[in-house]
TrEMBL record, chain A:
Residues 73-332, 357-410 form the Glutamate synthase domain. This is Glutamate synthase. Belongs to the glutamate synthase family. Coiled coil: none annotated. InterPro entries: Aldolase_TIM, GltB, GltB_archl_type, Glu_synthdom. GO terms for biological process: glutamate biosynthetic process. GO terms for molecular function: glutamate synthase activity.
Automatic annotation (TrEMBL), chain B:
GO terms for molecular function: glycosyltransferase activity. Gene3D superfamilies: Glutamine Phosphoribosylpyrophosphate, subunit 1, domain 1. PROSITE patterns: GATASE_TYPE_2 (PS51278). It comes from Novimethylophilus kurashikiensis. It comes from the Bacteria. This is Amidophosphoribosyltransferase. SUPFAM superfamilies: N-terminal nucleophile aminohydrolases (Ntn hydrolases). PANTHER family: AMIDOPHOSPHORIBOSYLTRANSFERASE. InterPro entries: GATase_2_dom, Ntn_hydrolases_N.
Automatic annotation (TrEMBL), chain C:
It comes from the Bacteria. The lineage of its organism: Bacteria, Pseudomonadati, Pseudomonadota, Betaproteobacteria, Nitrosomonadales. Gene3D superfamilies: Glutamate synthase, alpha subunit, C-terminal domain. InterPro entries: Glu_synth_asu_C_sf, Glu_synth_lsu_3. GO terms for molecular function: oxidoreductase activity. CDD domains: GXGXG. This is Protein glxC. It comes from Novimethylophilus kurashikiensis.
């Protein structure tokens, strides 16, 4: 009889960790990759809605009205933004994405009546022309930042941090710094671009207040000013953003994506979106600023259910990055060219990955032409096809959102409230301060 | 985050007006620190054997007269008590340790803000203008002062969390910035038997420096050790019985500006707090360098 | 000459006037009185005009300037001429931290000293400093030139890209990837031209050239070494 081979993998030194140690030992460099945290985290999936039944009455789907209009920037700006849906496109740079992708985002957002956002590296004509409502980011690096585009923007987003890498600067590896990208960022072609982690001309909330005031002066107090923070000490950060004079606060949880960052940042720095959102809402409540300063949450928002839960917990809107890229075909096994699906699995294999697992945005060799600057690869994303797909995606999310809202008896999605939710796990109950399903128990807050 | 101001009046005649000179300085720092404000004023010293104790009562109707009676009855000697809104300055010849123990035992809700022969401290929540009005800052007299306006970053907004912080006698400190390792400093000091009244990062810096000086360091040596131990961003302004001292961390991420004039030395986070000072256009204006200790003697 | 007094109007009214009313008025020169350290004076200018600020400014004087020629007869706070595109900002006194931060174009002249991080992230601006500059100046400087007639502090030009600095005095230390390079005739001419622009009289021969060694440009070039 042959002996049966029993292999036991170490839980601590599993294959992933072994690969990590081998790779570090071979290169002497940390790993850089794209997308967001891959580890399991407490999330919106751990919450469910209490819909209407006998004690409350649901609204009829598709028939009875359910408003989704969302107004952002009502605190100081003379010209607040009005969106048709509370789902926006998160800031992603031209550089990380191609000009064609930026155009697709603008087209879809415009058709759906929502906003898109620039990223590190400035504003491209494609996205300005295709986007009815465009939010212009002011980042620590100030790549491509200039007063003309500032005046062309509909809102300004002062970025302090990003959920994938709070406390870190941006990155764009040399293979994506093409002539056009380099030109916009005033850099030599092909260098690895590192962005600063702090703004060049202010440090701390007291000086941030002066910076916000300057941006208001330059734009004649017309445009809403957002302040975006990566989720870490969110309760304090949101309070300080209010002090500094923000119209809108964007909180980006640790599930948020990036085009290129050290893996150690992505997986080990920051707190989950669920916890950050609850802290942000607590901070606004504490200051009696709910409804006066609007809150946008991002970081791993994927579905209409996620949107509905975020709104119920107190967000005024959400921003989506990775979901938007997936909708354009990211991690799809094929891309569309002249109406034909063309298989791209060989290109994934060449990167050492496969459809469904790819996080190789940093290489610029995106097999489906989304996160690339390569002249050939970028052709794989046809702006009109991308726009159509993204429009469908946003439409689906919005339909799911209103379906949930109607089921909970709301004629306005902004009337969802946290009492409409219960938690399925202790972790989610504690982080979101939402009772465990079937009980009144919020760990640390109320008894069973 | 915060605004800081300091004023040392060299011209003897102007010392009666130090409060009036300072008031616009403090109010000028409102945007930097809208949550709370505080001030340490160094006035005429009490007699050699005496000490002043700055006290704060959260209750506006606190019965200071009763405290005076209890003090006399329990300790067998009267204390002089001067009340201003929620604050009072208690003067006695008893040992500080005796007074501390007595206060803790009989009036545990009171905050003991400072002990010294020259220094009084006032600090409270509210805008700088409100706090200044509550405690009649414009009437203050003295040779030098240290003031602060606070925008809370991580710890709560309470009078106790407001600056200045003190340790020892006639010594105080205000801070603009944010330390990144206040909790390990605090734990290290707790092992030395030092206790804390708040979770404010500034208190950690304050007690660290006071501890070093009690151990025999002079201010310069204590600060040099501070550069090794205190991490993060800070501009520290300190007052002692006869000097003001200023230091910025190596990164100098928080602003500071100094105006030296024949009649005074004025320090603030920004020039807008100095603009109103008499004849400031003839003052020597400069920015303190990082990691350099500036000391001005009365 | 048109005078605007910041004891009488707010900085918001001042800037609204400069942005919206001034362009149509044909005014070529105006002065701003009693600045008293107020922030954002003449920020966001987009008009060719000479502005004299009579006193000390606060943060972001002439921030994001285009076209205007602004002279401050005093000192300025943080971020003077930050992100400037064109025109000139001249400071007669000293400038606090982050002078000319992220500037894309135009000329910033500081007759006195500047504090830390002068020319941080500069993107094409020319900066001429009559005095000395503080620590960490020229951090990540991408493009443009900086002439320093006095000394430079610690970490000059850390992680710099394509900008070039000319220093007359001592350099306390260079930042990562910054190096001193020999001066060429083109460098001497550039220094002379910038000194002329600023009105400073020094011999270009006294200046050293500092530029990026470009070793950080592709920092993973050593990757995939197997041992």
């Amino acid at each position: 009889m042959s002996k049966k081979l029993v292999l036991e993998e170490s839980a601590g030194f599993n294959q992933k960790v072994i690969e990590y140690v081998h790779r570090a030992s071979a290169t002497g460099l940390y790993e850089i990759r794209g997308m967001g945290a891959k580890r399991q985290l407490p999330s919106f999936d751990d919450l469910v809605f209490l819909a209407g039944s006998a004690s409350r009455y649901p609204l009829e789907g598709y028939r009875e009205k359910c408003t989704t209009t969302t107004v952002l920037g009502t605190r100081f700006a003379k010209k607040p933004i009005e969106l048709a849906i509370p789902i926006t496109v998160a800031g992603m740079s031209f550089g990380a994405l191609s000009g064609r992708v930026k155009e697709a985002l603008g087209r879809a957002a415009t058709e759906m009546g929502t906003s898109t956002t620039t990223g590190d590296g400035g504003m491209t004509p494609e996205e300005r022309q295709s986007s009815k409502t465009l939010v212009y980011q002011c980042l620590p690096s100030r790549y491509g930042f200039n007063p003309d585009d500032l005046r062309k923007a509909d809102a300004i987003e002062l970025v302090i941090g990003q959920g994938a890498k709070p406390g870190g600067g941006g990155m764009l590896l040399g293979q994506k710094v093409t002539k056009r990208v380099a030109g916009m960022r005033t850099l030599p072609v092909g260098v690895d671009q590192r962005s600063a982690c702090r703004h060049p001309d202010w440090t701390g909330p007291d000086d941030l207040a002066i910076k916000v005031a300057e941006l208001r002066e330059i734009t004649d107090w017309e445009k809403p000013i957002y302040i975006k923070v990566g989720a870490t000490r969110t309760f304090n950060d949101v309070k300080l953003a209010v002090h500094a004079g923000a119209d809108v606060i964007v909180v980006d949880g640790m599930q948020g994506g990036t085009a290129a960052t050290q893996t150690v940042f992505i997986e080990h720095i920051g707190i989950p979106t669920l916890a950050a959102l609850r802290q942000a809402v607590d901070a606004l409540e504490d200051m009696n600023m709910r409804g006066k300063v609007q809150l946008i949450v991002s970081g791993g928002i994927r579905t209409g259910a996620d949107v509905a839960k975020a709104l119920a917990m107190g967000a005024d809107a959400v921003a989506i990055g990775q979901g938007v890229l997936l909708s354009l075909g990211c991690n799809s096994s094929s891309y569309v060219q002249n109406g034909q699906h063309i298989d791209a699995t060989a290109d994934y294999n060449a990167l050492g990955t496969a459809p469904g697992f790819c996080h190789h945005c940093q290489t610029g060799k995106c097999p489906v032409g989304v996160t690339t600057q390569d002249e050939i690869l970028e052709q794989r994303l046809e702006p009109l096809v991308g726009a159509k797909r993204l429009k469908n995606y946003l439409k689906t999310l919005n339909m799911e959102l209103t379906t949930v809202a109607r089921a909970c008896g709301k004629s306005n999605v902004h009337h969802l409230e946290k009492e409409d939710l219960v938690a399925l796990t202790l972790e989610a109950a504690a982080m979101a301060k939402i009772p465990l399903a079937g009980t009144n128990w919020i760990p640390g807050v109320s008894p069973f | 985050m915060c605004g800081i101001v300091g004023l040392l009046v060299k011209n003897q005649k102007m010392r009666a007006d130090i409060g009036k000179l300072m008031l616009p300085m403090l109010i000028g720092m409102t945007e930097r620190g809208p949550d709370s404000a505080g001030l340490a004023i160094f006035g005429a010293p009490v007699s050699n054997a005496d000490r002043k104790f700055s006290l704060y009562a959260a209750d506006e109707d606190f019965n200071w007269q009763k405290l005076g009676h209890d003090f006399t009855n329990h300790l067998g000697t009267p204390a002089r008590i001067e009340q201003k809104a929620n604050h009072a300055v208690l003067t006695t010849h008893l040992e500080p340790s005796t007074v501390r123990v007595w206060l803790k035992e009989h009036y545990p809700s009171l905050h003991l803000l400072s002990v010294g022969q020259l220094m009084d401290i006032y600090k409270d929540t509210g805008t700088p203008a409100e706090v200044a009005e509550r405690y009649s800052f414009q009437n203050l007299q003295g040779s030098h002062l240290v003031g602060h306006t606070r925008m809370a970053t991580e710890s709560a907004v309470t009078p106790a969390h407001a600056h200045p912080f003190t340790a020892g006698e006639d010594w105080c400190l205000v801070h603009n910035g944010s330390l990144s390792n206040p909790n390990s400093i605090r734990r290290m000091l707790q092992h030395q038997g030092i206790s804390f009244e708040t979770d404010n990062d500034t208190e950690a810096a304050c007690r660290f420096l006071e501890w070093r000086m009690r151990e025999g360091d002079d201010l310069r040596t204590a600060l040099n050790k501070g550069f090794d131990e205190l991490d993060g961003f800070f501009t520290l302004l300190m007052g002692t019985k006869d000097q003001l001292a200023l230091v910025r961390d190596p990164f100098a991420c928080k602003p500071a500006i100094v105006a030296e004039h024949d009649d005074y030395v004025a320090i603030a986070s920004e020039y807008r707090s100095l603009a109103h000072l008499p004849d400031v256009k003839n003052a020597n204006l400069y920015e303190p360098m990082p990691e350099e200790l500036y000391i001005w003697k009365v | 000459m048109e005078s605007l007094d910041l004891h009488k109007i707010t900085v918001r009214e001042l800037n609204q006037f400069l942005h919206k009313e001034l362009p149509g008025k044909g005014v070529k020169k105006l002065e701003i009185l009693n600045p008293d350290g107020v922030h954002s004076i003449a920020a966001g200018m987009d008009t060719e005009v000479d502005i004299d600020i009579q006193g000390h400014g606060g943060y972001y004087v002439g921030g994001m300037n285009k076209h205007a020629n602004i002279t401050v007869h005093g000192n300025v706070g943080w971020g003077v001429a930050e992100n400037m595109m064109s025109g000139t900002v001249r400071v007669k006194g000293f400038a606090s931290s982050a002078a000319g931060a992220s500037g894309h174009g135009g000329t910033l002249i500081i007759e006195g000293d500047t504090s830390l991080r002068c020319g941080i992230s500069m993107k094409g601006i020319d900066i001429v400093v009559g005095g000395s500059i503080g620590n960490f100046s020229g951090f990540m400087a991408q493009a443009g030139r900086m002439v320093i007639c006095g000394d430079a502090g610690d970490g000059l030009g850390d992680s710099m890209y394509e900008a070039v600095f000319y220093v007359r005095g001592n350099i306390k230390s260079l930042g990562a990837d910054a190096q001193i390079e020999p001066m060429t005739d083109a460098d001497y001419a550039a220094v002379q031209e910038l000194l002329n622009r600023a009105g400073f009289k020094h011999d270009p021969k006294e200046f050293k050239r500092v530029a990026g060694a470009k070793k950080l440009y592709n920092w993973n070039a050593d990757a995939n070494q197997e041992y």
